[in-house]
């Protein structure tokens, strides 16, 4: 819980530095974001926030997410076949999306990173940015 409060304060500080007022509604949204371990979409954030404060509107959620995204505090992901989802900006990682449940699993593979670098180099390029998304279905035990 202390970690969530610290993250919330980090979001608040970034917004304040940008001259954005921290309203009661924004504070609730920031707390929801800092407490989540998943990749929620705006509707999930709205549902959780409106349980805490029924005066929060979906447009307030969208505006807050847009501000945080513009500041680089969160990343927006538009995974195939679904709504935009958000996550706290952190170190590089890739995603595996379960096409049955919509769960997003984060992973990092040094083998994949090295192979990407090797491919880019062999084609005469330096990688500036990349994003890897794998879509799969959980294996059924036989």
**Arithmetic mean pLDDT:** 84
User: How far apart are the termini?
Assistant: 41 Å
Can you list the strand order of the major beta sheet? 4-3-5
Overall number of domains: 2
The helix/strand order is HHHHEEEEHE
**What is the global morphology?**
flat
Q: What CATH first level of the largest domain would be assigned?
A: Mainly Alpha
Structural class computed from helices and strand pairing: alpha+beta
Fraction in beta strands: 5-15%
Contiguous low-pLDDT stretches (5 residues minimum) are: 1-7
CATH topology of the largest domain: Arc Repressor Mutant, subunit A
CATH architecture of the largest domain: Orthogonal Bundle
Plain-language structure description:
Helices cover 46% and strands 15% of the residues. It has 5 helices and 5 strands; from the N terminus they run H-H-H-H-E-E-E-E-H-E. It starts with a helix and ends in a 6-residue tail after the last strand. The chain has 2 domains: 2-88, Winged helix-like DNA-binding domain superfamily/Winged helix DNA-binding domain (Arc Repressor Mutant, subunit A); 94-136, Ferric-uptake regulator, C-terminal dimerisarion domain (Dna Ligase, domain 1). Helix 2 (24-35) crosses helix 3 (42-52) and helix 3 crosses helix 4 (58-70). The model is unreliable at 1-7 (pLDDT under 50). It has 142 residues and is of the alpha+beta class. Strands 4-3-5 form a 3-stranded mixed sheet, with no helix packed on it. A two-stranded antiparallel ribbon has the order 1-2.
């Amino acid at each position: 819980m202390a970690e969530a409060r610290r993250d919330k304060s980090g979001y608040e500080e970034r917004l304040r530095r940008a001259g954005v007022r921290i309203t009661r509604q924004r504070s609730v949204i920031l707390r929801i974001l800092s407490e989540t371990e998943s990749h929620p979409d705006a509707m999930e954030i709205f549902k959780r926030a409106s349980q805490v404060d029924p005066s929060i509107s979906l447009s307030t959620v969208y505006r807050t997410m847009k501000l945080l995204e513009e500041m680089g505090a969160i990343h927006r992901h538009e995974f195939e076949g679904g709504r935009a989802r958000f996550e706290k900006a952190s170190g590089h990682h890739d995603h595996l999306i379960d096409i049955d449940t919509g769960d997003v699993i984060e992973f990092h593979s040094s083998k994949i990173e090295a192979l990407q670098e090797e491919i880019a180099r062999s084609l005469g390029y330096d990688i500036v940015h990349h994003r890897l998304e794998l879509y799969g279905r959980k294996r059924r035990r036989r």
